[in-house]
Specification:
alpha/beta, PPK_N_dom, 20 helices, transferase, EC 2.7.4.1, magnesium, ATP-binding, eight-stranded mixed β-sheet, Endonuclease, Chain A, polyphosphate kinase like, 27 strands, 3 domains
């Protein structure tokens, strides 16, 4: 599209935007809560195995913690400081914040009921019991008391609160006991706080047996609470209650050229520990005097207090779900090696480079193995004598990752190795700093990207000498280079030896590690310079096709969709008659099926055993289809403040595979959530005949097995 045409198009788009209704966006924070409600609905689903339901309860709790630490904290900070608060729903920010608090509280109460009335009794009936101290006999008490004295008592630190002892600092997300004790000599009531140690397992096995068939757990706070007399000898323990505070833990780094980025980040991480309180969770038996003290000391408002039945912080259920009870979990799925990466005979050694040189390879994790594709690619590159250089972006991985080990091995072997480490990956900052320094010590060239931008793209670039010329081998993915999460995150990755892609990736790495200013790419769309406009141009092109009576259509899959300009372009395309299918896991601010606005837009959401993480952008383009995969969601931060990459798929089999993937998600015969015109979500799990609908992720497993038997790629 020429500059003149683009200017004309922009003018048309802005004029048409004036015709769009003011209430065309759903609030992003409330939409996020709707996503977490879908997680909760999986925990409430009686057809889901019991330990998986407990896992979804824990995921819900962990998600909500992060939501308060980042999203609610940021909104409240802006309101308090008078900064502009972005809102696209035409309501006052304080009104939106009040609704967030109400909705989140209702969901937490529902979450607690699900545990108390469904999951806990169901687990008990299956032989996995979470018990109270009072239900145990003397023999059990003796076992637990011995465990307490050996493993817990020495690390406890009761802190008195009186004129000589000010109210202590309470760390975020830690469980605490508020304790009132009476001095029998003076009859004076005192207050103390006891932190429940976070390094000790949250749920303690009552039985010391190895068997998982009939097990009992007691929560750590319940065990400690029944040993308080020994912590306050000579004092009378009147009562105790559990509470927990969530703090603002978002990190904001003011980057400039005068301060080392790592040093700036380390200072900000230290500040994070002391962020202001955002939410106070208390057990529903807490007395008014204790509550008044906490509210006063934390300086919080009434709507920030969440009164809940015990136990607080059901994220602790992660520990319970690790027991070996396969009958209470999803049937295991073992990732398989992609057919193109299999050796011809069992005695042959896999050759990843030869496979990629023959044809491009599209892998789909976790259905297809990360270890025998991405990991094997980097490992072979590290040891191959013909490989001269390896460049890789790293956003989230683990310090013991074989990917990191391979990069170190390659550097030690004398290869040129560049690792672009994003140390600002939220809540992984400290870990990323640690292993980035290990890479540097091994001789890897470590860079941290561009000032003001996070590097979120997923790239590996290997340069190999073959028959006197250099050849490019690239991997471009939708997910992180993390072997652990690759088993539970759904992602695509493209392997290619295309010279065109190799040139594009070479240019991009020069931008990231040096001072190059490159704006032209052939097969990639790169944020923040081209991606937004590239998507807008393609959406408008589909609208033009529809107006001209040519085949048109848009299919999008993303984690989140909140960008107003993209949403408005989709509304205009819908009005032009373009059929639009949007598959979103989390936040979605677009409205689907609204008369006069989005009749041609359908929105689906799929949640299950795997976290849907891939991003796909497909355009019918009058029969000359364009399909991209990559790292970018449809959010301001992805399009404007991050380095993101989409790569176009060209292989017909790959395009057909993406089509089939979408057909599963939008089939009326597959279980999913549908967005209704009012912005709410409806889950469909049974057919019109009352039969259970199949799970999409189960269908993909079967589909890939059938494809392997046909030798498809």
């Amino acid at each position: 599209m020429s500059d003149d045409t683009r200017h004309q198009t922009d003018a048309i788009l802005h004029a048409e935007t004036d015709d769009l209704p003011a209430d065309r966006y759903l609030d992003r924070e409330l939409s996020w809560l709707a996503f977490n409600q879908r997680v909760l609905e999986l925990a409430e689903d009686p057809t889901v195995p019991l330990l998986e339901r407990a896992n979804f309860l824990a995921i819900f709790a962990s998600n909500l913690d992060e939501f308060f630490m980042v999203r609610v904290a940021g909104l409240k900070r802006r309101i308090v400081t008078g900064l502009a608060v972005p809102t696209n729903v035409g309501r006052a920010p304080t009104e939106v914040l009040a609704e967030i608090n109400r909705t989140a509280y209702e969901l937490q109460l529902r979450h607690a009921r699900c545990f108390a009335e469904q999951v806990q009794p169901g687990l008990a009936e299956a032989g996995v019991k979470i018990v109270d101290w009072d239900t145990l006999d003397d023999a059990d008490h003796a076992i637990l008391t011995e465990y307490y004295e050996q493993h817990i008592y020495p690390v406890l630190m009761p802190l008195a609160v009186d004129p000589a002892h000010p109210f202590p600092y309470i760390s975020g997300r830690a469980l605490n006991l508020s304790i009132r004790v009476r001095n029998p000599r003076t009859d004076k009531v005192e207050f103390a706080r006891l932190k429940v140690p976070q390094m000790i397992p949250r749920y303690v096995r009552v039985d010391r047996r190895e068997s998982a068939e009939d097990v009992r757990f007691i929560s750590l706070e319940e065990l400690i609470a029944n040993q308080l007399d020994g912590l306050f000898p000579g004092m009378e323990v009147i009562d105790h209650h559990v509470f927990r505070v969530t703090r603002n833990e978002d990190v904001e780094i003011e980057e400039d050229e005068t301060e080392n980025l790592i040093q700036a980040l380390e200072k900000e991480l230290l500040r994070r520990r002391f962020g202001p309180p955002i939410r106070l969770e208390i057990s529903d038996d807490m007395d008014e005097a204790t509550l008044d003290l906490l509210v006063r000391e934390f300086d919080i408002d009434e709507e920030q207090v969440y009164t809940l039945p015990a136990p607080l912080d059901l994220g602790g259920l992660f520990a319970v779900t690790r027991i070996e009870r396969p009958d209470l979990k999803f049937t295991p799925h073992i990732p398989v090696t992609h057919p193109q990466f299999r050796p011809n005979t069992p005695s042959d050694k896999p050759d990843v480079f030869r496979a990629i040189a023959r044809r491009e390879v599209l892998v789909h994790h976790p259905y297809e193995s990360f270890a025998t594709s991405v990991q094997a690619f980097v490992e072979q590159a590290a040891t191959d004598p013909d490989v001269l250089a390896i460049k890789q972006t790293l956003y989230r991985t683990s310090g013991d990752s074989p990917i990191v080990a391979s990069l170190i091995k390659a550097a030690e072997a004398g290869k040129q190795v560049l690792a672009l480490v994003e140390i600002k990956a939220r809540f992984d900052e400290e870990a990323n700093i640690t292993w980035a320094r290990k890479l540097e010590q091994a001789g890897v060239h470590v860079v941290y990207g561009l000032v003001g931008l996070k590097t979120h793209c997923k790239l590996v670039h290997v340069i190999r000498e073959e028959q006197g010329r250099l050849r490019h081998y690239c991997h471009i993915g939708t997910g992180n280079y993390n072997p652990k999460t690759s088993r539970i995150y759904e992602d695509f990755g493209l392997f290619t030896s295309s010279d065109e892609v190799g040139r594009d990736v070479t240019r991009l790495f020069n931008v990231l590690s040096g001072y190059a200013i490159e704006t032209q790419y052939d097969r990639l769309l790169v944020a923040p310079l081209q991606l937004r406009q590239g998507l807008l141009d393609r959406i408008e092109r589909e609208a033009e096709h529809a107006r001209a009576g040519r085949p048109s259509g848009i299919k999008l899959k993303a984690n989140s969709m909140v960008d107003e300009s993209i949403i408005d372009a989709l509304y205009r395309a819908s009005r032009a008659g373009v059929p639009i299918e949007i598959w979103v896991r989390g936040i979605c601010s677009i409205r689907a099926g609204v008369p006069g606005l989005s009749e041609n837009i359908r929105v689906r959401s799929v949640l299950g055993r795997y976290l849907e993480h891939s991003r796909i952008y497909a355009f019918e383009n009058a029969g000359d289809r364009e399909v991209y995969i990559g790292s970018a969601d449809l959010m301001h931060r992805n399009l404007d403040r991050r380095i993101e990459v989409l790569v176009r798929l060209l292989d017909r089999e790959h395009l057909a595979r993406i089509d089939r993937f979408f057909s599963f998600a939008f089939s009326d015969e597959v279980s999913s959530w549908r967005m209704l015109p009012d912005g709410s979500w409806s889950r469909r799990v049974v057919s019109e005949e009352g039969e259970p609908l199949p799970d999409l992720q189960d269908l993909v497993m079967v589909d890939r097995a059938e494809a392997r038997s046909r030798g498809a790629r």
